[in-house]
Amino acid sequence: MTEYPKLHLLIAGEWLGPEGRASEPVLNPATGAPIATLPHASKADLDRALEAAAAALPVWANTPAYDRARVLRRTADVMRERADAIAAILTMEEGKPQPEAKVEVLAAADVFEFMAEEGKRAYGRIIPARAAGTRHIVLKQPVGVTAAFAPWNFPAITPARKMAASLAAGCPCIIKPSEETPATALEMARILLECGAPAGVIQVVFGVPGEVSTHLMASEVIRKVSFTGSTAVGKQLMKLAADRAQRTTMELGGHAPVLVFDDVDAEKAAVAAVGGKLRNAGQVCISPTRFIVHERVHAKFVESFTKAVEATKIGNGLEAGVQMGPLANPRRVDAMTALIGDAVAKGAKLHTGGERMGNEGFFFHPTVLSDVPMDARMMTEEPFGPVALINRFGSEDEAIREANRLPYGLASYAFTSDGARAVRLQDQVESGLMGLNTFAISVAETPFGGVKESGHGSEGGTEGLEAYLTTKFIAHAPAPV
User: Fold this and answer.
1) What is the pLDDT of residues 358-408, one digit of tens each?
2) Which residue in the list 24, 173, 285, 453 is annotated as catalytic?
3) Is 285 a catalytic residue?
């Protein structure tokens, strides 16, 4: 059985332990017990990382895209070879079932492979000039050293999107994964070094999040910032970025609506919805949460959804057959308890769940609520947990208004067999991602990002590479003679 590894910082190609540094424990969410000690980077450590990244920039930026691609492609191959071991580590620190963790690791490998190839296609162009003998040239060049900040809920795929795109574009990356789920990103960084990434091109740091981000972003070395996390923190980072006009990609909070119309099989839609809802115990920024179901099929949908939820096997993600693991930390348990209690007190109907499971680890019963009043906190605050809010609607316009009611616009979903309606939903629902009759809306080759207060910019796809490139125009005229 895979053991959880010792934890380090990775700075200038060196692995630095907790000796002589501030540190914190990493907990296994299935038991609540500490499994490792994580070192925090000092200001001197961060300065050294900045210095190493600055030194690596001209070397890596001038490395042919073909050679950069070889490093990333080899990384993808090695990740696939080690997928079982990395998935076990991911489960130990984050909680999701190991098969689900393995899917995430393999998806992260796909990101490295896709960006390996996409980096070779950072095409410029020649624009027809107005004067004979003149060339108008557009070049795509690396933006510079990047700082990346990743959350705890997807310890493989989210750091991979940031590291792979940055390195494919020719930009060294200093990444701070979550302190609660550090080992998965460290394993990927280790593989990058093994596969030929030079020291300084990829560095991994940890610490008090606000202190690390403030220190890194205050440096003139950092030219691009990528953040995945809450809207509140994202807004603070955008303010910091403004001081140095740093480019930003922000993938922030969501509260995804799911519109279910009466022209589909409500039972089949509900079963599919449970799989999407309970993935990673609902701790997913694109998790389907506000189910807006036509009044003619609402009762059937609630009944089928509840039945499927109650049949879900919950337990330690390392155990065979487990379909949902614990919440990742005690904060989520407290938040779920408070939000569900508020909704029920205000009149929501509780069909199943609603409370913590056992007294070891951070397990929580998946919860189904219907007829949730609009003044319930959960109708405006992202619950980020295994809870479904199932309300009803009468008309298409009513459903669309509810889908667009919140300031968030990351993901949305709809189930309908009406082709004309599907086109109207594509045009009118405000979100950066939409799934029509599916909850599968994210793969390596497609863009991932939101609108409104869910952020700006995209990771993944060609758009993900573009975020790390600048555009330079060159007018080349004949020399005067």
Assistant:
1) 989 999 999 999 999 999 999 999 999 999 999 999 999 999 999 999 999
2) 285
3) yes
Phi, psi of 435, rounded to the nearest 5 degrees: -110, 120
Q: What is the pLDDT of residues 192-204, one digit of tens each?
A: 999 999 999 999 9
Q: Chain centroid to CA 270: how far?
A: 25
Mean pLDDT, rounded, for 46-63 = 98
| Residue 359: CB atoms within 10 Å | 7
| SS3 annotation, the chain | CCCCCCCCEEECCEEECCCCCCEEEEECCCCCCEEEEEECCCHHHHHHHHHHHHHHHHHHHCCCHHHHHHHHHHHHHHHHHCHHHHHHHHHHHHCCCHHHHHHHHHHHHHHHHHHHHHHHHCCCEEECCCCCCCEEEEEEEECCEEEEECCCCCCCHHHHHHHHHHHHCCCCEEEECCCCCCHHHHHHHHHHHHCCCCCCCEEECCCCHHHHHHHHHCCCCEEEEEEECCHHHHHHHHHHHHHCCCEEEEECCCCEEEEECCCCCHHHHHHHHHHHHHHHHHCCCCCEEEEEEECCCHHHHHHHHHHHHHCCCECCCCCCCCCECCCCCHHHHHHHHHHHHHHHHCCCEEEECCCECCCCCCCECCEEEECCCCCCHHHCCCCCCCEEEEEEECCHHHHHHHHCCCCEECEEEEECCCHHHHHHHHHHCCCCEEEECCCCCCCCCCCECCEECCEECCECHHHHHHCCEEEEEEEECCCCC
Distance CA 351, CA 349 (A): 6
Query: Which sign, positive or negative, has the C-alpha torsion 204, 205, 210, 214?
Result: negative
Distance CA 200, CA 247 (A): 21
Would you say 222 and 147 are in contact if contact means Cβ atoms under 8 Å apart? yes
Q: What is the pLDDT of residue 2?
A: 84
Phi/psi class of residue 460: alpha, beta or left (left: φ > 0; alpha: ψ in -120 to 50)?
left
Mean pLDDT of the chain: 98
User: Under 8 Å CB-to-CB from 479, ≥6 apart: which residues?
Assistant: none
Query: For residue 14, what pLDDT is reported?
Result: 98
Beta bridge partners of 359: none
Q: How would residue 349 be classed by pLDDT, with cut points 50, 70 and 90?
A: very high
194 is catalytic: no
- Map out the domains of the chain with their CATH numbers: 9-252+454-473 (3.40.605.10), 256-443 (3.40.309.10)
Structure tokens at 53: 């990244």
The one catalytic residue among 24, 94, 180, 251: 251
CA atoms within 13 A on the CB side of 238: 17
The pTM for the full model equals: 0.97
